[in-house]
Amino acid sequence: MDRSLRERLTELYRRLLRVYGPQNWWPIDPEYHRRHGSDPREEIVIGAILTQNTSWRNAERAIENLKRAGALSLKGVRELPAERLGELVKPAGFFRRKVAYLREVAQKLDPIDVVEKIDREQLFRIRGIGRETADVILLYAGGRPFFVVDSYTKRIVFRTFGVKGGYEELRRWFEGNLPPDVELYREFHALLDEHAKRRCLRNPLCGGCPVEELCGFPSGNP
DNA sequence: CCCCAGGCCGCGC
DNA sequence: GCGCGGCATGGG
């Protein structure tokens, strides 16, 4: 990786942070867990499943339902009948699959401390955890430096730097061009998503874009 | 009516 | 290994 590319990547981060501010990912409710004796990291794992290919708004509705049922925890998920869990999770969409995934995860990530040590490969063996969800769990719940890549991330680095690749390729590209800083990874991923939603849409709004000088689009990259 | 959302699985090739 | 259909609700 050439030096100028690293500098441009770091500069992209600094500018996005300045323009959009800290994004507060992953949102959790510490007070809920204090009162119920659960661990906030459990909420991250549950939220990671619920938001798969689903707007955060809809995932949040399911999370609120779980809260009201006192079931926003791995234990809560395990103890609810599948049918009842399905009703609560329904607003997040794909609810039959997500019920199966949640029950699987609630069983295999118990106790939640396993997120500190578990291998990525072991996470993949859990039904419902693919590459992105694994990295979300490792980064936001486990506090481990795995860079989370999603479709927004792919779009932005392709347009901005002309870098194209599959999931693992792009994850390694980020990790190879940034220091292994958990807080940096957390914030950068969140900022890329925010930028993709506000500006770097399918049809991008390049006029007045805050990172226009760093970006090869539209003059350079597709 | 359409497309999209903080993906993953199982299948065919 | 890659591409594709299915999965489901809510918003624009």
Walkthrough of the structure:
The chain is mainly alpha-helical and 222 residues long. The protein folds into 2 domains: 3-23 and 146-214, Endonuclease Iii, domain 2; 38-141, Hypothetical protein, domain 2 (Endonuclease III, domain 1, Orthogonal Bundle). It is 59% helix and 0% strand. The chain contains 12 helices and no strands. The protein has helices at residues 3-20, 30-36, 40-50, 56-68, 74-79, 82-89, 95-108, 120-124, 131-141, 151-161, 167-177, 182-198. The chain is elongated. It binds a DNA duplex (13 and 12 nucleotides) through residues 25, 47-49, 51-59, 61, 90-98, 101, 127-133, 136, 148, 150-152, 166, 189-190, 193, 197, 202. This is Endonuclease III domain-containing protein. Residues 50-198 form the HhH-GPD domain. Pfam families: HhH-GPD. Keywords: 4Fe-4S, Endonuclease, Hydrolase, Iron, Iron-sulfur, Metal-binding, Nuclease. InterPro entries: DNA_glycosylase (IPR011257), HhH-GPD_domain (IPR003265), HhH_base_excis_C (IPR023170).
